[in-house]
Amino acid sequence: MAINNLDLLEKFDYKKQLAFAYLTCERLYPNYVYFSNNFEFGSKFILRSAIDFIHSSLLMNIAPNQSEIESNLKKVDLNTPDTEDFSSIFVSSALDSCTAILETLGFMLDKNSARLYDISSFATDTVDMYIEIRDNLDFNTDAQFDQKIFDDPLMRREIKVQEGIISYLNEIDTLESYDLNNLLSLQNNNNKSNIDL
Asked: Taking 90 as the threshold, does the pLDDT of residue 102 lie above it?
């Protein structure tokens, strides 16, 4: 699904780009918690620790330690579910949560802004897949497939949140801790994920 102002991310400094990625990780994390709690897979604490590491890196004025990034990458990877091992519709959202964190950590290493597009897509893909399965939609037989997904309140909200974060980041000169708190409030969904888990 198209985020209208996504290309603005390219012109942002590293800290603002990392903030966008971090906020996505926070939005998707409850999906992993739900999956882990209900299907006895992985450690939600490992993912929480990795997200907290990303958050602390945003607030520090020194570059994060490469070995710490790599350590978090390995731990999250070991706690990433394989969709072929589960029949639940929630495995995809748990996987997207992990891949968003993995891509964010990778971005911290290589600062490749192309990763931000993937991170954005993980969030919309989570919503897309959930709606598709929840409503039993079939791309091959439903001419309104794309429109139904786009019009769903969950997708509308995810797009609005991403566009709102990007607009906010575009309006500020430098990212401060209070900006991060404002952005967390902007995307707050009563501590639920982007698919209301």
From this structure: yes
